[in-house]
Amino acid sequence: MNNSEMIKLDCLGDMCPIPIMKLMQEESELAKGKQILLITDHSCVSESVKNYCKSHHFKVEILEPVNGIWEFYINL
User: Fold this and answer.
1) d(CA 45, CA 43)
2) Phi and psi for 16 in degrees, rounded to 5?
């Protein structure tokens, strides 16, 4: 997938519920075939995003490229 089809949500330093609110604002883009990349550095946000995606039936791949930084690749 090229970068024009990906929406990047930088949630570094954001506490709950800000990352979920950012994700909700871009959710409609998933139906257009785009992917959302959400990046966080808080473990509580990581759990919230994972649970949110599961409850909304979004596919999510979670990577931890650096210790304490999580990347969520979210799509339908």
Assistant:
1) 5
2) -60, 140
